[in-house]
Amino acid sequence: METGVPSSRKRKSAALEGCRPAAATGAADRRSSEDLDRISRLPSEILGEIISLLPTKEGARTQILAPRWRHLWRSSPLNLDCDHIGPRLKLPRILLSIISSHQGSGRRFRSPLLYTSHHIHAVEACLLSPALDSLKELELTSWRGHPIPASVFRFSPTLCVAHIGHCSLPDDTLQGVHFPLLKQLELLHSTISEGSLNRLIADCPSLECLLILCCRGARCLRINSLVITSIGVNNYSPYEPMLEQIIIESAPCLETLLHLHEHQGLRVSVLLAPKLETIGCTNATSLVLGGSAEIQCNEPGRSNVWRREHLDLLGSLDIRLKTVVLNNYSGRKSDVDFVNFFILNAGQLETVTLVVDPTNIEKFLAKQRRKLKLEDMASNDSKKK
Predict the structure, then answer these.
(1) What is the mean pLDDT of residues 274-279?
(2) Which of 64, 88, 155, 205 is the most buried (most CB within 10 A)?
């Protein structure tokens, strides 16, 4: 037995529905669609920022979403990643077409791999285009060892991220360049003199993250920065001179310091870094903490003469490290003494990571547990773990 609305009323309702004008039905559908598409109601400035965060292809495709979106991409801050916008042979033409038609400012520009002179000329044209005015992020790579284009430095007042690879940075080009907003700097497989490298870092007062990989031209890097928080270095280079020493003269906010090459020797001196919590090193790293006690683990058979000579200093060192990572740990005496130094003297140490050869790993670890003075750790927190 059917209950609810009488059948006669149902038939009447259906009849009225059938008599409803088509225009009224269409208007209702449009209102429903508008309710669902609330994002299109946002101001054009906000939509432009959203589009600028999308990969280049996806940003361009927003033009087909609706009439409202048709012109937004060309007026939004440009995010131009040249490795994902077209086939290699057609890339220069596509790149120049985009850059010539874009009406907004620049957000990010990532150059393509440079195969021909046409690629180079297209990149140089982009760097001079008003479409990249006020650029925030620059990734210029595979410049085939050529001097960096001088046009790059027109972005120095606005750049926040710079990734420079496979190029040379001549002294005269860098002279007087200042990057007030730069927070992240990466130099890869490039050539830069020691004087220019240290001046460049000093002229980046907002620099927080520094990465130097396989560069040549400088032997010593000096850090004096109120804001830098992390430094990573792979100092191997097939050419001389290469980086041999890092001196942290004053870095009150530095938290992480990494030596990323396990065979290339590097001397690291930390004079003032009260917030340094993580050191990543290899058995080719030499550390000087507080300007006096040198800690080395790169010479087989070396006895820890420094430890006997500086026992009076160890009591006064305030080592606030929480994490130590030692790559290529071999278990020889110099490695064991190196690790034990931090176990016995770092009062806030939480984690020690030793990267070892996996051969006979269980036997090796059992032997190392006997050598490492884990029961005498200076850190109470570590003892509880």
Answers:
(1) 89
(2) 155
Look over the chain and give the mean of its residue pLDDT values, rounded to a whole number. Answer: 80
3-state secondary structure the chain: CCCCCCHHHHHHHHHHHHHCCHHHHHHHHHHHHHHHCHHHHCCHHHHHHHHHCCCHHHHHHHHHCCHHHCCHHHHCCEEEEHHHCCCCCCHHHHHHHHHHHCCCCEEEEECCCCCCHHHHHHHHHHHHCHHHCCCCEEEECCCCCCECCHHHHHHCCCCCEEEEECCECCHHHHCCCCCCCCCEEEEECCECCHHHHHHHHHCCCCCCEEEEECCECCCEEEEECCCCCEEEEECCCCCCCECCEEEEEECCCCCEEEECCCCCCEEEEECCCCCCCEEEEECCEEEEECCCEEEECCCCCCCCHHHHHCHHHHCCCCECCCEEEEECCCCCHHHHHHHHHHHHHECCCCEEEECCCCCCHHHHHHHHHHHCCHHHCCCHHHHCC
pLDDT surpassing 50 at residue 99: yes
pLDDT tens track for 105-133: 889 999 887 778 888 888 999 999 998 99
Please write the tens of the pLDDT for every residue from 309-320.
444 444 455 677
What's the whole-model pTM score? 0.73
